[in-house]
Amino acid sequence: MDESFSDEPEIIANSIRDWGEAVLAAHERIRTVVRRTPVEEISDIFPGCGSHVYAKLENEQETGSFKLRGATNRILQLTSYEKTLGVVAASNGNHGLGVAASAQRVGISAEVYVSDQVAPQKAKRIEEFGARIQRAGSDPLDAEVTGRQRAMESGRVFISPYNDWDVLAGQGTIAVELLEQIPELDAVFVAVGGGGLIGGIGAYLKHASPKTEVVGCWPENSPVLYESIKAGWILPVEEKPTISESTAGGLEEGSVTLEVCNAVVDQCVLVSEKEILEAMRLVRRSKQWLVEGAAGVAIAAFLKTAERYKGKTVAIIICGGNLSQRVKDLL
Fold it and tell me: What is the pLDDT of residues 222-250, one digit of tens each?
């Protein structure tokens, strides 16, 4: 962790209070627009684990992913002038869907930059929500850098998938619901890509339920933020292909999520591609749920560390259910 930050307890306390209040404000702003997703106990699919395990079903959002929360929170705060210009985003799937759906709801234009890695069916769904697709670069970070540059040139607001306080606060509204649904929560498992989801969830939990352990879950093939947290700055980590497509990609320089995650993530778990796939197959076989690879990462991380949570109440964030055909074929 970043010692320059963690050595200042007063700074941490003040920041967590501010972050928690921002998440609560986001919750009030979006709660009539974004679906309150259900929680379902799934302890039975982990025989012998000795824990009470619940799944928070963000795959049941309108767009099939939690990303609608952050996009909605950001778009609802646009000025009238900003709305006339429209917004720009970069995403190979879920964030693009969230921005497109939220923009369509308020009647503004949206342009989404995607990389060459985008699954054709995901690009098609973004367009079905009314957004324009632009292609840029060979990986998600290329698309992100290009999208931000085009937004600056045109005077439009760029909505980052993670490097935006309002997006992060919107994702954190999951934690507000979780504590209402499971008041005595000992730990929550969250897949990590750019850090917006775990940053938002962790920021609120540290504010409202500091005893709840925040567990960051990474695919071994894409540990960019994990390595960056360890180093204390954003590293250009080489990635390998992963079925956790939603967590793949590098981080923008100066991302706000590095500081937040450094302060709120308590435990880190890395899982292999085999472990992710086995977790996805387990929930499909047991619950008939098709969950995306990122959700499989969080499930696999719990399976890997279940012994540590005996007798405790645990939530796993099922962050989305939008699978590419490539991943579906593996199941």
Answer: 999 999 999 999 998 989 999 999 898 78
> 63 Cβ partners below 8 Å, 6+ apart?
94, 97, 98, 101, 129, 322
Looking from the CA of 29 toward its CB, the CA atoms found within 13 Å total 23
pLDDT tens sequence across 169-220: 999 999 999 999 999 999 999 999 999 999 999 999 999 999 999 999 999 9
Residues linked to residue 134 through DSSP beta bridges, in sequence order: 113
Output the pTM of the full model.
Answer: 0.93
Beta strand 87-90 with 52-57: parallel, antiparallel or unpaired?
unpaired
List, in order, residues 6 or more apart from 288 with CB less than 8 Å away.
none
Taking the C-alpha atoms of residue 163 and residue 169, their distance in angstroms, rounded to an integer, is 11
Indicate the SS3 state at residue 321: coil
Q: For residue 232, how far is the Cα from the chain centroid?
A: 21
